[in-house]
Design goal:
GO terms for molecular function: ferrochelatase activity; metal ion binding. With 405 residues, the protein is α/β, with parallel strands linked by helices. The protein is built from 12 helices and 8 strands. Strand 3, helix 5 and strand 4 form a beta-alpha-beta unit. The protein is globular and about 60 Å long.
């Protein structure tokens, strides 16, 4: 929107006492929501990354587990999931599609902002992407992380990635990175899930199932209980599972309320939040119940069909294709249940529109009361609060887009 030459020199905008390190002037404040409009040079789409072939699988998993001392033999157990699909994770292709869709939507709205894409764990690496943006004269970046909820791995770690990229490239003080708010309850994110659940319930009804014979399982990635308890800011008390579990429960509740309003009989269809993809030692408590364990228990409760909703995921990447489409569907078959896995947002038009709405919201500094949010927890914060989403094992590392620490 603006050329670098039109900006105030960024070198003069930062000091060790800044409340929000690495931030643009509008976001370098203790306020939860920005109140000053801010021009940006580019959008930074940030992903997890994934292998592109069989030879990439173990190096990729080493990146994911760096610092944890996990031997290759253990990594090979997880590698079988990727090898089942030719060693290629679909996540990179999905992010390419998402990037192109965001670019198209920006053009349609007359917004002249390029979209860069960088990953945490595989090429294109975030450091290289930030360097490329700076080389092109784009020094004031607005980031979108491909995760909607609050937790260490889905929010704070991305903010640490931004800080690390700026420090490692020597661009700290020359490039700023802000981040759009967590968008778990934005209509653009919620709508594809609601449509998927509605389609599943209609299909089960057409097969003669009564609403009370169907269970909706909203599935998300499990995380350690200690990390879950620290998800979200310290100032909020949100019960067991912290902000991470509370946000998922709130979104699931909104979806089912909307569907029950549309078809009152669906009020007899119960729903619950389940977890998947845990990877820690058995001695470490993680969020439960596990989706497959829960499926095995449902026939005894009179359930004949399950709609498995990948509520924690943006696209059909490995945790969806393997943990749900393979393992959870197999668990349903073993239990004698009908089962369907509903859609992820992917590049659903409403989702892409919602992401661009978030960009424009941040550029214009739309007041919090005028922002789109479908639960009482939102709209979430522009600037993350102090102590938000601490990693218990690692503690706090430098992070962008939030108050210290």
């Amino acid at each position: 929107m603006s050329e670098t030459s039109q900006h105030e020199p960024i070198d003069n905008l930062h000091s060790e006492n800044d409340p929000v390190p690495f931030a643009s002037p509008a976001s370098n404040t203790e306020a939860a929501y920005v109140t000053t409009p801010q021009d940006y040079d580019a959008i930074l789409l940030t992903g997890f990354g994934g292998p592109e072939g069989q030879e990439d699988v173990i190096p990729f998993l080493r990146n994911v587990t760096a610092g944890r001392g996990i031997p290759d033999e253990r990594l090979e157990e997880v590698a079988t999931h990727y090898r089942h699909f030719g060693g290629v994770s679909p996540i990179n292709e999905h992010n390419k599609q998402l990037r192109a869709s965001i670019e198209a939507q920006l053009r349609d709205r007359g917004i002249d902002l390029p979209v860069y894409w960088g990953n945490r764990n595989w090429a294109p690496y975030l450091e290289d992407t930030v360097q490329q943006a700076a080389d092109n004269g784009h020094t004031r970046l607005l980031a979108i992380a491909t995760s909607a909820y609050s937790s260490y791995s889905s929010c704070r770690q991305y903010r640490e990635d931004f800080a690390r990229a700026l420090i490692d490239t020597g661009l700290a003080g020359k490039v700023t990175i802000d981040k759009v708010r967590q968008f778990f309850d934005h209509p653009g994110f919620v709508t594809p899930f609601r449509e998927g659940v509605e389609a599943a319930l209609r299909d089960f009804s057409a097969q003669g199932l009564a609403p009370e014979e169907v269970r909706v399982l909203f599935a998300t990635h499990s995380i350690p209980m200690t990390d879950a308890a620290r998800s979200g800011p310290e100032e909020l008390t949100l019960g067991e599972g912290g902000a991470y579990a509370a946000q998922h429960r709130a979104v699931g509740g909104v979806i089912m309320e909307q569907l029950r309003a549309a078809v009152p009989a669906w009020g007899e269809t119960q729903w619950e939040l389940v977890y998947q993809s845990r990877s820690g030692p058995a001695s470490q408590p993680w969020l439960e119940p596990d989706v497959c364990d829960r499926i095995a228990e449902l026939p005894a409760e009179g359930i004949k069909a399950v709609a498995i909703v990948p509520l924690g995921f943006l696209s059909d990447h490995m945790e969806v294709l393997w943990d749900l489409d393979e393992e959870a569907i197999e668990a349903a078959e073993d239990a004698g249940l009908l089962a369907t896995r509903t859609q992820t947002p992917g590049v659903h038009p409403e989702f892409v529109t919602g992401l661009v709405d978030l960009i424009q919201e941040r550029v214009a500094a739309v007041p919090a009361g005028d922002r789109s949010a479908m639960t009482d927890l939102g709209p979430w914060f522009d600037v993350c609060r102090p102590g938000c989403c601490e990693n218990v094992r690692r503690g706090f590392s430098p992070a962008a887009a939030g108050l210290v620490p």
